[in-house]
Amino acid sequence: MDKTLHAERISASGSKVTYTAIDDLPNGTCIELANEWFLVWGDQLLRWSFDRYQDAQARPKGLQVTVLTPRSTVAVLRAGYVPELHPTAELGL
């Protein structure tokens, strides 16, 4: 699994592997939107920083976003795994 996740995170050239998706992302997926990183949670996006989760905003519909979470992890989230959020995420919800 470690080899699979590593290949889904970092390309052979060493760059971050991303892909795009619209609307069908499960809770716990991390995305990039307008040069900022967010956590998808319900109908909200929680802005991420190195210090904490920050303000929440409405989750846009029909917008293509860059997905930062590896595909295998998104599949686990989609199958029902519910991640535990950092306490600062509660402030944004």
Overview in brief:
Helix content is about 25%, strand content about 30%. It is built from 3 helices and 6 strands. A hairpin with a 2-residue loop joins strand 2 and strand 3.
N-C termini distance: 32 Å
* β-strand amount: 25-35%
Q: Mind telling me the C-alpha Rg?
A: 13 Å
Q: What characteristic shape results from the CA principal axes? A: globular
Mean pLDDT: 90
- From the helix content, strand content and strand pairing, which structural class follows? alpha+beta
The domain count comes to 1
Compute the number of strand runs.
Answer: 6
Low-pLDDT regions: none
Please describe the structure with a list of short key phrases separated by commas or semicolons.
93 residues, alpha+beta, six-stranded antiparallel β-sheet
Description:
By secondary structure, the chain is of the alpha+beta class. The protein has one domain. Helix content is 24%, strand content 31%. It contains 3 helices and 6 strands; from the N terminus they run H-E-E-E-E-E-E-H-H. It has a 6-stranded antiparallel beta sheet with strand order 1-6-2-3-4-5. A hairpin with a 2-residue loop joins strand 2 and strand 3. The chain is globular, with a radius of gyration of 13 Å. The model has no long low-confidence stretch (mean pLDDT 90).
